[in-house]
Every structure is written in structure tokens, then in C-alpha cells.
């Protein structure tokens, strides 16, 4: 399979004046993080650079996380992996220290409805607005890509709306995405999802989270209505569904299961290839 894929890309590069090269990067899921935190106007922001502390210029990627937020190792490693493709990655703590714990299966059940009410859309919008201003004004970076996972998948489309700051987007298994948000998209977007039937093979997420999270997940119906809106808008878009992938697969699949591992690695490349082409 790999030789024919390479051939196909080689064919593309001769067919078009400017060609897209797949960056020679991979997604890391274990090991040490490379970034650092900085407090920006009261918001703790994880920063990851593609090389030693570049301070200004280049292109940025705003990382909009799932409900596990900055404490989750896989999230920081994913941010580092995107940075390794040549971007300044800015990953704000959306929950002011109140991210959902990822390892609380034994603990008291967390009421996700209540947790969500502590983090309303307006508050998340304000934090992301602050991050966009920080990228533009302090880091002096004008082009911003956005990546959004699960919870965060709603916000990249919101900030892809005209004048909101994100220029190019990638989202994976978005939750709570509304038609009006898709309608407002004003830049290239690529989406990674999974077929509905794979929900029950979800790994490593507590039952209370499962119940709340999957109600709103991006299933086949959501995919088709999203594609219909984007097609009608003549948007530049792309969608991929990964079989056998659980909700959350782009961040924390079970890496010992081949189809899940593939879904994480391929969706990472889906994002960086999209940014290489459009950002
Ligand atoms: C950021 O700094 C402000 C002002 O110094 C402080 O009140 C706040 O607790 C800090 N926040 C974080 C997340 O470190
Ligand atoms: C990068 O800069 C930040 C803020 O000045 C600092 O906290 C951090 O230690 C630096 N990291 C490296 C690897 O130099
Ligand atoms: C969760 O919180 C919501 C809102 O506060 C409340 O209506 C609901 O009864 C709670 N659910 C449980 C299982 O405690
Ligand atoms: C997708 O989810 C929506 C909302 O929960 C539901 O109405 C719809 O039937 C689901 N579609 C499929 C194909 O399961
Ligand atoms: C759709 O968008 C492309 C790229 O921007 C443009 O070249 C084309 O004219 C558009 N088509 C229509 C029907 O607006
Ligand atoms: C990951 O998958 C393997 C193989 O199916 C299984 O043995 C293991 O328990 C799974 N790990 C988690 C954390 O679910």
C-alpha cells in the first residue's frame, strides 16, 4: 500500500504547479513533553515550539482540547507533535484548572451536566479570543490554524467564522457542533470522525463521561448534514471516517489495537497535511 501512496503523491506533484509535501513527522503518545506553560492574563497556556523557543513569526496552531484539557499527557504530546511539523502551538487551559480527571473510574461519579454548566460556551469563547489576541499581538503571528478534539471540536468552527481569528481548521469527533456553526465556517476545514457502531468499543473513558459525551457526538447523520452545508457553501473541506475507532480516538485510543492506532496516526497526518496545503 505504501509504495502506491508514494507514487500517487509523486503524480500529484508533477500535475500541479505547487505541490503538497507530507511533512516527515509522526504523532508521539508517550514520553516527555517539550513545551512550557506561561500565564497569559490569568489563563495558563501550554506553548510548544518546533525549535528552541522561537518567540515571534511563523504560523501558529491553536489547540482546543477535549474535556481532559492540559493535564492529560496525550494532549500535550499531541500539541508537541503538531509543533514538530513547523508550528507554534498554543494550548490554553480552557477550564481554569477544572479539567475532567482522566483516571477517576474508581472515584465519585462526576456530574458532567453540572461540569458543563461551569464552562459555558461564552467563557470558552472568551479564553479562545484571548489566545487569538495573544498570538496576533504578542507572538506577532498572523496565520492561525486550529485543531479541536471532542469538546474542542465545536470551537474551531466558531473561530473559523469571518474575523474570529482561525484561518484553517481540523476537528476530530466533535461534540455539540451545531448547524449554524458549520454554516459560519469561512476557511478550509478537515474533519475526522468514526462510524456510530464503534462507540461501544470506547476505551478508557468513564461511564459518566461516555453518557454525556456521546449524546452529541458526530455520527453519520452529523457528517452528512455537515457535508451538505459545506458543499452548498462551496467550502474547501474534507471528511474522513475511521472504522473501529472509539470516541476520542485522535487523542487517546488504545494503541495496542491496530485500527485504533491507525486512526490516531492517520488523523494526525490528516491535520498536518491539511495545514501544509492550506495554512
Ligand atoms: C495568572 O496570574 C494571575 C495574576 O498574577 C493570577 O491571579 C492567576 O492565578 C494566575 N493563573 C494561573 C493559571 O497561573
Ligand atoms: C522558553 O521560554 C519560556 C518563557 O520565557 C521559558 O519559561 C522556558 O523555560 C523556555 N524554554 C526553553 C527550552 O528555553
Ligand atoms: C447533574 O446535575 C444536573 C444539573 O445540576 C442535575 O439536574 C442532575 O440531577 C444531576 N444528575 C445527577 C445524576 O446527579
Ligand atoms: C446521530 O445522532 C443524532 C442525535 O443524537 C440522532 O438523532 C441520529 O439518529 C443519529 N444518527 C445515526 C445514524 O445514528
Ligand atoms: C468555488 O470555490 C472555488 C475556489 O475558491 C472557486 O474557484 C469557484 O469559482 C467556486 N465556485 C462557485 C460555484 O462559486
Ligand atoms: C487495550 O486493548 C488490549 C487488547 O484488546 C486490551 O487487552 C487492553 O485491556 C486494552 N487497554 C485498555 C486500557 O483498555
UniProtKB/TrEMBL annotation:
Keywords: Hydrolase, Signal
Signal peptide: 1-17
Entry annotated with the keyword Hydrolase: yes
Dienelactone hydrolase domain mapped to chain residues: 57-277
GO MF annotation terms: hydrolase activity
Gene3D superfamilies: alpha/beta hydrolase
Listed transmembrane segments: none
One family name in Pfam for this protein: DLH
InterPro entries found in the cross-reference section: AB_hydrolase_fold, Dienelactn_hydro
Cross-referenced PANTHER family: DIENELACTONE HYDROLASE, PROTEIN AIM2
Listed name of the protein: Dienelactone hydrolase family protein
Source species of the chain: Paraphaeosphaeria minitans
